[in-house]
Structure formats: C-alpha cells, structure tokens
Automatic annotation (TrEMBL):
Protein name as it appears in the record: Gustatory receptor
Lineage: Eukaryota, Metazoa, Ecdysozoa, Arthropoda, Hexapoda
Gene Ontology molecular function, alphabetical: sweet taste receptor activity
A Pfam family the protein falls into: Trehalose_recp
Domain of life: Eukaryota
Family: Belongs to the insect chemoreceptor superfamily. Gustatory receptor (GR) family. Gr5a subfamily.
Keyword entries, A-Z: Cell membrane, Membrane, Receptor, Transmembrane, Transmembrane helix
GO cellular component terms, A-Z: plasma membrane
Organism the protein comes from: Aphidius gifuensis
Cellular compartments annotated: Cell membrane
Record's bilayer topology term: Multi-pass membrane protein
Length: 229
C-alpha cells in the first residue's frame, strides 16, 4: 500500500511542478507586459512634453520679434542679441533631438505597427464575428489619438522654425540691415526640427504620409480578407 501511495505521489509531482511553472510564467508575463506598456506610454509623454516646451520657447521668441517689427520698433531691437537667441534655440533643438530622436523613431514604429495590427484584427472580427468588444474600439481610437498628438507636438518645432523665417521675409525693406540679413541666412540654412534618428524630419506632412500608407494597408487587408473568404 505504501508503494502504491509513493507511486501516486511521484505521478502528481510533475503535474504540480508544471502548474507552478505556468503560474510563475504567467506572473512574469504580466509584469513584463505592464513594464513595457508603462515605458511605451512614458516615452510618448516625454516626447510630447519636450516638443511642446521647445516649441513654446520658439513661439515666444517669434512673438517678441513680430511685435517689434509690426509696431515699427526696429530701431530699439538689438539685432545681434536676437540673432544669438535664434542660434541658441537652434542649438537647443539639435541637442534635444540627439537625445529624443531614437525614442521618436521607436515610438513611431511601435505606434504605426500596432495601429496596423489592431486594424487588421478589427477587419477580421467584422468579417468573422457578430459581436466586437467596445474595448477594441477604445484601444484603437486611443492609439490613433496618441500617435497624432505625438507627431503634431514634434512637428510644432518645424512650424515655429519656418514661421521665424517668414517673419523676416515680410520685413519692410528699410529694416534689412546686415544683422537682419545674417538672421535670415542663419534661419534658411540652419533649419531645425525633430527627427527620427535623422532618417526623416517630423513635420505635418509626415502624418499625412503615414495616414496614406495606413489607408493603403487597410484596403489591401480588406481585399485579401474577402479573397480568402
């Protein structure tokens, strides 16, 4: 009887070990998933905040210059000082871009990838199932809004940089002294914007390009889904 009892215990031990392993793997998977999700959200939020901060500094500088030019206060402007301010702003944007550009590249790739994955899954659910979870639509909508907010925030730096150049191109001819010409040349040659690891600049045109490619992907997915059915 003792022998049969030991045999039964030996049979149960591997099952208990497998069960414990599954629980352990499940806990580790949940922890990793939460850490990755938190890191992803934190990176997007960091990019948005840094972009807004730099864009607002550029915007305030442009406002001061535009106000003085439009109110004919050009004689009171220290153009050398203004030029130095723009040089400092450009260098600040470049330094920030060197730090956050890898995050922008990874974030853009991850966001676009998951938008495509969830869109493909949504098309599959529509064609195969009668009921779709509300969470799915909320998740996809949130992901699209977050990606749009990230790109528009980063593109604001490019907008303010181009606007700074347009301020000086609209100046009255009497304002075109040598310092103003230097500023114009500096802004036209040394254009700044956030980039994705120098592969491409983040501008408003970029989000239109991404949307076009996503629409093409959706159309191809729908076409292939109907072909398979």
């Amino acid at each position: 009887m003792k022998t049969s009892y030991l045999k039964n215990q030996l049979k149960i031990l591997p099952l208990l070990w497998v069960k414990d392993c599954k629980i352990f793997v499940g806990i580790i998977s949940i922890i990793i998933s939460n850490v990755v999700s938190f890191t992803w959200n934190f990176c997007d939020l960091l990019i948005i905040l840094v972009s807004i901060g730099l864009a607002e500094r550029y915007k305030n500088l442009n406002k001061v210059v535009r106000f003085k030019i439009s109110n004919n206060l050009t004689e009171r402007i220290n153009w050398q000082k203004i030029r130095n301010y723009y040089v400092i702003m450009n260098e600040l944007v470049k330094e920030a871009d060197n730090i956050v550009s890898p995050l922008i590249f990874i974030s853009c790739c991850m966001n676009v990838y998951w938008i495509c994955v969830q869109t493909s899954e949504g098309i599959r659910l529509v064609t195969t199932e009668s009921k779709i979870s509300i969470y799915y639509f909320f998740s996809l909508f949130f992901l699209i809004c977050r990606t749009t907010a990230l790109v528009l925030s980063a593109a604001k730096i490019d907008d303010e940089s181009n606007y700074a150049l347009s301020i000086f191109t609209r100046c009255h001819p009497s304002v075109f002294i040598i310092e103003v010409i230097w500023i114009q040349q500096q802004l036209s040659v040394d254009k700044v914007s956030f980039t994705a690891m120098k592969f491409f600049p983040i501008t408003r045109k970029f989000i239109l390009t991404v949307r076009i490619h996503i629409y093409i992907y959706i159309l191809l997915t729908i076409y292939l889904t109907f072909l398979s059915n």
